[in-house]
Write the structure tokens for this entry.
Amino acid sequence: MPRYLTVGAAQMGPIQRSHSRREVVERLIAHLREARRMGCELVVFPELTLTTFFPRWWMTDEAEIDSFFEREMPGNETAPLFTEAKRLELGFCLGYAELAQEDGRTRRFNTSILVERDGRIVGKYRKVHLPGHAEHEPQRPFQHLEKRYFEPGNLGFPVFRAFGGIMGMCICNDRRWPETYRVMGLQGVEMVMLGYNTPLHNPPAPDHDEHSGFHNQLSMQAGAYQNGTWVIGVAKGGTEERVPSLADSQIVAPSGKVVARAAGDGDELIVYRCDLDAGKSYTATTFNFARHRRPEAYRLIVERKGAEPPP
Ligand code: CDT
């Protein structure tokens, strides 16, 4: 008996700064209702789903920065999302900016949670690979200050037994790093859920701009195939606060093949019935890690951070 899980990738169009949490949650609930009609069991929302992508602005006022963060989950404004998902018996994966009190201090993370169909939060991930910069770089047309507003995630890349499978999460820039998928692959991951906000212009490397869609797809397809896992990639796309961002949400099978793909750059749900056993044919043969991996030859991966060419 195949283990099927019907998943909806709930792409979001832009969220402007003037949009309230309440308006955003209404859009998320509309996605949930459509997902239910389409037979989904799990809906994946993008990175930092609840607000505009605020790291594009240099801010110094702590209260202004904190206004983009959630102190509790669910909180007052997100409670209706949890209530409706539970009523519809739908699980979801949600990215948001997390303000935590931990180790006696305030900490800020770029976070995703996995919520089961009964409303329980069964998994949490905090973004490890924070792109961009920490200081104001006024020569850029827009900032990318994730290194200023977030700490690197401190939870590693955990996987969770949920939805009848082994589920993992990562966030946006993480998808470009093979280590992300492999650490989850080594825990038997069967589905990786990830959301992204990817500006179509990368100020430090404008020569990459024409390849944004290709690099997105390349990374997710490679991660899926090399680890025999489903990858659910979900964008917040379109032009947000005058910054055009990549849409192209997609569901990638463990073969590496894209099996569903968004057509536009607005709110759009794409759905696929995923067989969670589909990766077995890869993880039992070509990517049977226990049989073929040679960790003794990979020591540099964990011992060295930056590339050091020979003298
Ligand atoms: N949100 C996020 O991680 N975006 C990055 C932009 C990279 S350019 C600084 C991404 O990898 O898509």
Observations:
- Residues 96 and 244 are 20 Å apart (CA to CA).
